[in-house]
Amino acid sequence: MRQIGKGFSPGLKLCGTLNLPRLSKTAYTNHENKLMSVISEVSELSMQKAASELLVLHPTKNKIVECGISVDGMWQRRGYSSMNGCVAALSVDTGKVIDIEIMSSYCPTCRKISKMPRSIESETFAADHVCHSNFQGSALKMEAVGATRIFQRSIVKRGLKYAHYYGDGDSKGFISVKDTYGKDSVTKYECIGHVQKRVGAKLRKLKSKNKNLSGKGKLIDSFIDRFQNFYGIAVRSSVGNLSGLQQNVIATLFHCSSSVEKPMHGQCPIGKDSWCYYQRALSCGKKPKEKYKGLPNEVLNMVKPTYLELCTKELLTKCLHGKTQNSNVCLNGVIWQRVPKEVFVCLKTLKSGALDAVIQFNDGYKGCVEIFKKLNITLGYFTLKHTNILTSIELTTHIDIQHQM
What we know:
- The protein is of the alpha/beta class.
- Helices cover 54% and strands 10% of the residues.
- It has helices at 8-17, 25-57, 108-115, 120-128, 142-152, 154-158, 172-177, 192-209, 221-236, 242-257, 277-283, 297-308, 313-317, 326-338, 347-363, 367-374, 381-404, and strands at residues 65-75, 84-91, 97-104, 160-167, 187-190.
- It has a 5-stranded mixed sheet with strand order 3-2-1-4-5, with helices on both faces.
- It is elongated and about 80 Å long.
- Residues 1-276 form the Mutator-like transposase domain.
- This is Mutator-like transposase domain-containing protein.
- InterPro entries: Mutator_transp_dom.
């Protein structure tokens, strides 16, 4: 039931519909606890296996291998009031989950105690109970705390040193881990997808502050989207080449602003494989045609300073890898499929859903086979057939994501 984001109550309805005997709440909880134990074990083995793959990819004389991970936080509730959240670390080489920290600041027993009148019994009850929460603080701090916990156990549990931190523009998580293995021992790299989005965000902010940029033939939304898209294309086409990368992203400013009256493609890369349609036409011996009307000079001059802020060597150096956090986004979807954001859950349910998602994400639906084996459940023909079909679909999706990274 957890794989489809449902719990005890929907299970009762399903049993009633299929004319099956129902489980009591106690029996359901017992089975849930047993399943949780197995899922934790299988997910840990899956993440250890993913970590061991990096030991093969990066052979070294030392027992500790340095690698890069993509770190991203996710919250069950949108905004800054969520009590539940996860921080996942995925390998940028394989796209698999290396480690995950699941956190909740909610404890049903603590909540119950807070509503009880103060007495000796309530104080005794409070002293004896085991708190179910593993995080205290605001939702904003979850990513930093989760990243710190993951980095602190990296050597002991994974035999890895996360020397390269790939993340979005929010540096709270990075600041908390940059000195984990020594002063400034972790290097920050940017997700090019997030940097690309900054282009659109900055230009829209500029447009909102300056009314002269609005209107037909000026900085309309479609033009901003073009700037953003070509910025991303330029970054992806210049992986590992800083001077070429800077030249290309600056060229996109003039490429998008070019018009029939004033073509500005002189800085665009030449050749048949160029992302510039103008230069491609020239290389094929054809007469190039401008596809767009371009921007007036006065608008271009107003846009240029803002655009060039995202063309500095300091920023572009962090984008030379050409990688994104697409795998993290995909993992988020798998987790919230099991733990829907519309339904609040406690830490145990959150862990069950998140760790099951890790198993599926790393190993496909064949990971379920390992769970059944640990539970001493014999698999039938249709179960095996079902897992094979779904795993082949998952594998295709995973390969597509890897190509986008």
